[in-house]
Amino acid sequence: MAEIRLILGDCLDMWGGYMREKGEIRFSHPTQKPLKVFKIPIQDWTDKNDIIFDPYMGSGTCAVACQELGRNFIGIEIEPKYYEIAKRRIDQTMESLFV
Fold first, then answer.
1. What does DSSP say about strands 72-75 and 51-54: parallel, antiparallel, or unpaired?
2. Please, where are the H alpha helices in 1-99?
3. Is the pTM here over 0.85, yes or no?
């Protein structure tokens, strides 16, 4: 239990602290999390080619983490503005993985 509290405590200042990867861009979604916040549990609790479902996709950070870690992704986003941001991020990540 102490380990869980330590991890959560470290995440309180995600954007100003160590959770943000160098050069990571923040998009206009009000609850966007740093990529590392998604990568850690996805890497620890899933296997390559698993399917991750995100019913509140937002700006697509979970989808990007899945792509970078070799997981499949299904996402839903009701807000067109955030869907477009997520789509652009996913497309850019796909391009960078195959360059």
1. parallel
2. 2-11, 35-45, 61-69, 80-97
3. no
